[in-house]
Design goal:
globular; 161 residues
Length: 161
């Protein structure tokens, strides 16, 4: 299984010894990372400007990894969805997916796990729906969004990076 590493000082992401370049979509699709993952059938485009790697290991957890290259005015972003979570299990059932209590508990549990695993300092921002750590290159947050109820760990780079 593919192993993910994050360098908190530089914001560099490594997946199976391949660096993930923070770029626009055209450059991303020409990158060694994309070409290697694509040649193995490990990455697929799921909707415009969004790519999926179905299974990666980050520390001791299995995640689904979504990649959104820089597009329009949106920064490069990686979303990790815990495949053993109630949120992941609820993705196909809108009534379960919109359970705010479950989402709040998931943000708390996943942010505690992430903070411990990455040995992060105290978060820079905390609310029920988001816990965020800020870095010079961007931020890492655990959150959910109340229109789509998407949930997970989000790694987002500053615009123009």
């Amino acid at each position: 299984m593919k192993k993910l590493k994050v360098d908190l000082i530089t914001g560099t992401i490594i997946l199976d010894k391949l660096g993930l370049d923070v770029t626009d979509e055209d450059t991303f699709c020409e990158s060694n990372f994309y070409k290697s993952m694509n040649s193995k059938g490990s990455i697929k485009k799921i909707i415009p400007h969004h790519y999926l790697i179905e299974s990666i290991i980050f520390f001791n957890k299995e995640f689904e990894m979504h990649i959104r290259p820089i597009c329009f005015n949106f920064p490069f972003m990686v979303q990790l969805i815990d495949k053993k979570s109630k949120c992941y299990d609820s993705l196909s059932d809108w009534d379960k997916r919109t359970n705010i209590k479950m989402l709040n508990e998931s943000v708390e549990n996943l942010s505690n796990w992430l903070g411990s695993s990455l040995e992060l300092r105290e978060p820079d921002f905390i609310s029920n729906e988001v816990v965020r750590w800020e870095f010079s290159w961007g931020d890492i947050s655990v959150s959910y969004e109340t229109r789509s109820f998407n949930h997970g760990i989000y790694i987002t780079w500053n615009a123009g990076e």
